[in-house]
Amino acid sequence: MERGQFIYVENQNFKRNGQIIKFSGLCIGTWLNIEHFMFGMPGPEQVICDTIEKAYGKEVKKEFFGEFRKNFLDENDFAFLHKCGVNLIRVPFHYGLFIDDEDPETFKEEGFIWFDRILEFCRKYGIYLMPDLHSVPGGQNPDWHSDNETGIPQFWKYYVFQKQVINLWKKFASHYKNEAMILGYDILNEPYLMDAPNVLDKFYQEVTEAIRKEDRNHIIFLEGDHFAMDFKKIKELQDDNTGITFHFYPTVWEPELLGEKYSREERVRRFQEILSKIIQVRERFRVPVLCGEFGYDIRPGEVKSAMELLEDTIGLLKKENISWTVWTYKDAQFLGCCYPKSDSAWAKFTARIHEKWTHYKEMEQAKNLVEEICRIPEFAEADEDIKYYMQFRIRGILYQFQAKYILLPEIKKMGKDNFLHLPLDWKFENCNVYNEYEELLKKMCY
Questions:
Q1: Left if phi > 0, otherwise alpha if psi is -120 to 50, otherwise beta: which for 147?
Q2: 198 secondary structure, DSSP code
Q3: Which position among 153, 170, 277, 336 has the lowest Cβ density within 10 Å, counted as fewest Cβ atoms?
Q4: How far apart are CA 299 and CA 351, in angstroms?
Q5: pLDDT band at residue 2 under the 50/70/90 scheme
């Protein structure tokens, strides 16, 4: 196929047929990679899956997730996205859709089936797709969103895990090398806590070589260390059709930005300072950058303030000529544009769980337990770094308690038939949309 049919990198721009193209859209989080706060159930994906299997068996687990994925994203969603002006979706996926842990040399077809299905809609509605490998064997960071049950990113410790992912991207590239509606491959979501200083750079080099043996058409996107914010460990780019993608969550790292201390104007200035520092990587490598994630909680009764945060952030990105995808399109009414209705069975089920567990409560519990450990005299001088790292380990323990004493009882209480009907609540026609969010997208998309 001619290069003109594909998006490619030239200088600091994305181009198609010689013309500059900018992207704006949404991430399709928790569809092919379950995230607890978006799903409404505690634990990483594997813990949730194991708990459902304990309640009703393997077949029910398989049927439940099949129905969830079928209902979560269909043509009605794409028609809505198109109406909002979206021209790109970033789709996180779990390695387990392609690799069987019990037979890692054999690739599964499940992942290709789901991507092939939505690519039909991408072609129909003119929406590009960026697949994003969000969870890998062993976990590339210590958090729940890499399906890490232990808080230890073991992906960086064992080359056998890295080799599996290198082979996966080679297989993926071979399958989609002629698909023009794929923007490029987001190789690894939010890597963090590598043991060796050069392991990230070496991994990216090997993935690039593997992909280019099959596919010279698509852009390869690289994320930085420290949850896609720090690019010092990437020494050089191996391929001239490479882009950089970063994540922007200033209020996570500086929560005081949401307080009364900052006016809106002062907060925007601080956002600009943080953004300017991150995107220096664009000048360093002379390639385009894409903001793959940013987003803010949408609390009941506070939609206006969340939309202000989104508008200000998108405004800064557009000022810098940066393409972007917001986190996220659809979730269990946390920060998504679209969500199951408040009177739906799913919303009622997760509301009962939230009486005992929330993402924020879990984080606070882990922090408090670490502080309790540091009251032991021998550990009284523990620094903030080790306290921060150990919170992930403690959360790994909490996941097991949550599964046994919160999630499993609630799943059993529902009964098998009612539980299997839950995924219907994710169909677009059974969801609500924040009208303010829809209007913002229509106003701000390129």
A1: left
A2: T
A3: 277
A4: 14
A5: low
